Amino acid sequence: MDITEDEAAQLFETIFEKLEAMVAQDVVEGIDESRRLGKEETVVPAFDSPIKRAELKSLGTVRRRPPTNVEVLQIALERIHQRLNVIPAIARRLEESLGTCDIEWRVDESFVPSERAQQLEATLAVLRPDGARDVAAAYRKLRDLIPKIAPDSEPATKDG
C-alpha cells in the first residue's frame, strides 16, 4: 500500500501526539532534530545544464531540503524502530557480555548541551520499558500496512 502526503501528515501527527502522551521525550526530540536537519540530496546537473561539473564542485554537490510528509513519517518510524529494536538489542548484548543488568547509560557531554546530558541518562529498565510490547505490536501492524516506509525487524524485549 502506498501512502499519500496527506495520509502521511495525519499519521505522523497521530504518532507524534501518542509519543508525547507517553512522555517519550528522547524519541520526540530525535524526530524533531531529524526533521529540522532535512534531507540531503546529491546535486546532479541536467544533461543540458549550463552549469559545468567543475563549477558545480566549487559550489558543492550536496544540498539540504525540507522533508516531505512521507519522509517525515519515515523519519519518525526509523526513530521508533531504533528505540524498539536497536537500543534494547545493544543493551541486551551488553547485559549478556557483562553478566549484569546494573548498567547505566550516559551521553558524553561533548555531543549534547550540558543541561540535556542528565536527561539522557538511563538504566536498562528504562531502555526496555514494560509498555514497549504494546508499541511494538502497533508498529508491526503499521509496518504491515506500509512496508516501504517502516523498517523491518522484531523488537528486543526483556525476555528475548
Features:
two-stranded antiparallel sheet; globular; 160 residues; disordered C terminus; mainly alpha
H-E string = HHEHEHEHEHH
Counting DSSP H or I runs of 4 or more residues, the number of helices is 7
Structural class: mainly alpha
Note poorly predicted spans: 155-160
Helix content: 55-70%
Q: Provide the β-strand percentage band.
A: 5-15%
Report on this model:
This protein is mainly α. It has one domain. It has seven helices and four strands; from the N terminus they run ααβαβαβαβαα. Strands 1-2 form a two-stranded antiparallel sheet. A two-stranded antiparallel sheet has the order 3-4. The longest helix has 30 residues, at 69-98.
In short, what is this structure?
The protein is mainly alpha-helical. It has 7 helices and 4 strands; from the N terminus they run H-H-E-H-E-H-E-H-E-H-H.
Write the layout of secondary structure elements.
Layout: H1 5-21, H2 25-37, E1 39-42, H3 53-59, E2 62-65, H4 69-98, E3 104-105, H5 114-117, E4 122-123, H6 124-127, H7 132-145
Antiparallel strand pairs: 1-2, 3-4
Helix pairs in contact: 1-4, 2-4, 4-7
